[in-house]
Automatic annotation (TrEMBL):
InterPro entries: CE1759_FMN_reduct, Flavoprotein-like_sf, FMN_Rdtase-like_dom, NAD(P)H-dep_FMN_reductase. This is Putative NAD(P)H-dependent FMN reductase. It holds the Pfam family FMN_red. It comes from Amycolatopsis methanolica 239. Residues 5-149 form the NADPH-dependent FMN reductase-like domain. One of its GO terms (molecular function) is oxidoreductase activity.
């Protein structure tokens, strides 16, 4: 059964360094696992996420995105850092995911920002978030400041080396797990009265 890696990108521009970092991490991990790559762009779902937080009902597009994330064999989550933490859009998306859906799922956390001063947000914001969601968070987190792009030696060493190390950890975690089950093409629809009848309950109107 084939495996799937899903990139969740909270970049706000197009193109964005956040999406670029996610793509590079996914490509590096896919080289080792042969997994397919899917991308969830939160920028395209911003209105749907806000509506769901208010109404409790996801749009079809948001529902598909949540299912893509929860059925993934491994996740790469990337956010820009604003005010020393993940973006509100990033947090809001994971707020609408049902509790327990990410339990045990390998997750590689990554972030981008203008300067390296924001790099600790990975450890005091993102890692605790996914630990709370009971995901299996990879030991190596990847941060890319503006000066890392195209530089041979960033503040924490070469960006490419960090990407390869983190992607290797994710690939090992994903390869050690059974592949996620395939999505059924269509669930059987059972009318409510029939469901009650199976339980020996007579409906009253």
């Amino acid at each position: 059964m084939s495996r799937t890696l899903v990139v969740v990108s909270a970049g706000l521009s197009s193109p964005s360094s956040t999406r670029l970092l996610g793509d590079r991490l996914a490509q590096a991990a896919a080289r080792e696992t042969g997994a397919a790559i899917e991308v969830v762009e939160l920028r395209d779902l911003a209105t749907d996420i806000a509506n769901n937080l208010v109404t409790g009902f996801p749009s079809p597009q948001l529902g598909d995105a949540v299912e893509t994330v929860t059925r993934a064999d491994g996740l790469i989550v990337v956010t820009p850092i604003f005010n020393a933490s993940y973006s509100g859009l990033f947090k809001s998306f994971f707020d609408v995911i049902e509790a327990g859906s990410l339990q045990g799922k390998p997750v590689l956390i990554a972030a981008t920002a203008g300067t390296a001063r924001h790099s600790l947000a990975l450890e005091f914001a993102l890692r605790p978030l996914f630990a709370y969601l009971r995901a299996d968070v990879m030991p190596t987190a990847v941060f890319a400041a503006s000066r890392d792009w195209g530089a041979s030696d960033g503040p924490d060493g070469d960006l490419t080396a960090r990407i390869e190390r983190a992607a290797g950890e994710l690939a090992a975690a994903v390869s050690g797990r059974p592949a996620a089950p395939a999505v059924a093409e269509e669930d059987e629809f059972v009318p409510f009265d029939q469901q009650l009848a199976r339980l020996g309950i007579t409906s009253s109107r």
